[in-house]
Design a protein that fits this description.
Number of strands of chain A: 7
Largest sheet of chain A: 5 strands, mixed
Mean pLDDT of chain A: 89
Oligomer: heterodimer
Order of helices and strands of chain A: EEEHEHEHEE
Order of helices and strands of chain B: EHEHEHHEE
CATH architecture of chain A: 2-Layer Sandwich
Structural class of chain A: alpha+beta
Distance between the termini of chain A: 32 Å
Largest sheet of chain B: 5 strands, mixed
Low-confidence stretches of chain B: none
Helix content of chain B: 25-40%
Strand content of chain A: 25-35%
Number of helices of chain A: 3
CATH architecture of chain B: 2-Layer Sandwich
CATH class of chain A: Alpha Beta
Strand content of chain B: 25-35%
Chain lengths: 158, 136
């Protein structure tokens, strides 16, 4: 083992291992408004599909975003530096969507801003922007009772 | 593939007893949970379904329908009930958190036609929960 290899004591096996993958989860919050309305549907169909969410004036949520990254634990005991992850998510996601009307954002110029679509948009942004660890999963809570997860086209590992 | 989780809460009572064991064995195995008068929990149920996002609606599943199915199949049957006596599955199975997750899966899987069931998670309390992913 050279001096740059991560050294982790595996307590269970009582030996040093350089192959220890860990998952880091971090939560962020932002608030935004949206209206669910598809240009491809008639007014009646929009109302039937989206119900109260089709209200022309829109409505808002306090979204909770949970980002999971994974990787080998380095010599500092980290999957990645949390400051780097926080900076990336703040700059590219929270600042972009916090206190905005999602319908007016270019990301939703041709897609309905459902939380499903917001979840995949955020995953794609972070996949592109965050390089310090592997992006495992994005989980987005719309309310206390509804949440959405996206882990790329392959789906969740577990 | 996108995963949607819907949460619901219900309150129910239960007790643990295996009729094939002696009263002493039941008491030793299940401890206070063997009290035949039962005790209760505020259960939290998380149902996760998976599917591709419909490009037209932006939905993976009709959430309203999922909510209705969960209400009908689970909450109407289990909320404010004594599980051992009022839910048929538990006439022959012990209503542990594990068996609750399995019973709820078996109730939901055949009725959920518009999305594929991925996971049923049942919290008995904040610190104890069971997951079932179907028969593997």
């Amino acid at each position: 083992m050279n001096s740059n290899d991560p050294m982790i004591i595996d307590f269970k096996l009582g030996k040093v291992s350089s192959n220890m993958k860990a998952y880091l989860n971090r939560r962020y919050r932002f608030s935004a408004s949206h209206r669910l309305h598809s240009e491809q549907m008639s007014d009646d169909e929009n109302r039937a599909t989206y119900g109260k969410c089709n209200n022309p004036h829109g409505h808002g949520h306090n979204y909770v975003l949970e980002v999971t990254v994974s990787g080998q634990v380095d010599q500092n005991g980290m999957v990645c530096n949390l400051v780097d992850l926080d900076d990336c998510v703040q700059q590219n996601v929270v600042t972009r969507f916090d206190l905005e009307n999602l319908n007016y954002r270019q990301e939703f110029a041709s897609a309905v801003p459902t939380t499903e679509n917001l979840c995949t948009v955020i995953y794609d942004i972070l996949k592109r922007e965050f390089r310090q660890a592997h992006l495992e999963r994005v989980r987005l809570e719309e309310t206390l009772f509804n949440s959405f997860e996206y882990a790329g086209t392959e789906g969740l590992n577990h | 593939m996108l995963y949607l989780t819907r949460k619901a809460e219900f309150a129910a009572s239960h007790y643990y007893h295996n009729p094939e064991l002696s009263p002493e064995e039941n008491r030793r195995l299940f401890g206070k949970c063997n009290n035949p008068n039962g005790h209760g929990h505020n259960y939290v149920l998380e149902v996760t379904v998976k599917g591709e996002v419909d490009p037209r609606s932006g939905f993976v599943v009709d959430l309203k329908r999922l909510k209705e199915i969960m209400n009908r199949e689970v909450l109407d049957a289990m909320d404010h009930r004594f599980l051992n006596k009022e839910v048929p599955e538990f006439a022959t199975r012990i209503p542990t958190t594990e068996n609750l997750a399995i019973a709820i899966w078996q109730r939901l899987a055949p009725t959920l036609t518009n999305a594929k069931l991925h996971r049923v998670r049942v919290y008995e309390n904040h610190d104890l929960f069971a997951d079932f992913y179907g028969e593997e």
